[in-house]
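REQUEST FORM: STRUCTURE PREDICTION
Request ID: SP-0412
Submitted by: Lab K.M.
Chain count: 1
Length (residues): 258
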Amino acid sequence: MLRVRRRHHPQHGLRWLGGAAALLFAVAALPAAPAFGPGALSKMTASTLRLAPASLRGVLAAYRGYVDRGLLDAVEKERNQPSGVLTAVLQTEIQQIPDLAKRQTPFEEVAYRFGRVAGLAYLLNDPLRDPRDPKLAAICDDYRGYLERKLPLMPLTFDGYDDPPMEGDADAYFRAGLARQARYREALLFCYYKDGRQLSSDTFDDRSNAYGVAQSIASHAVSDAAKTWFYLWGAMDGDLSATPYYHPPKDAKEAENK
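STATUS: Completed
RESULT:
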């Protein structure tokens, strides 16, 4: 069932993603990003896969271990990079991955690179990844634990493939997303530092700004990864016809029927 999210951070056109069980992938070895721990990353990856074109989802499921390894490597190696470096690394992936198909590269490598792309998209949506404010740095561990508790049970949303579309320019696409991070950081500081003292996330309820931020950043991370995968699969001449929530323009449908 699809609904529009309205309660915390209203955005038009968002679609509910059903709550699937978290997938298990190297959880014990997976390093945590500042806001996203293993459980959160697992749920986000499961949601990203559910949004993938059916043909892509099938092959990535067959090579799932390579997807997970690429995700793990991206989070581990790139987590401390400035956002500008991350978008440059992602742009390199976007430029290189379509050529892998032309060179008939083994799909193990393709799956690994798709995993890296997802990991980079997740990092770019982490508002605590570079906490220059010492107050933000002090809450990273607690908020990561909060997401680990809450996100497996939290419904995520999908922005839609055209809101905005990913057209292959990582810097232009993610710039708008990076602009949201200041608002999320301010909301977390408001929750954690009331009356001049630091609070624990154990005091938050599901109507708090902390809950709304968690739902928003995870949803945008999944949406960004899914849209980047969609763009790449199309650039590789992959079949996009059975993509959840994708409604091609009428002229594209007419071209397919000719």
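NOTES: The longest strand covers residues 15-17.
Reviewed by: T.R.
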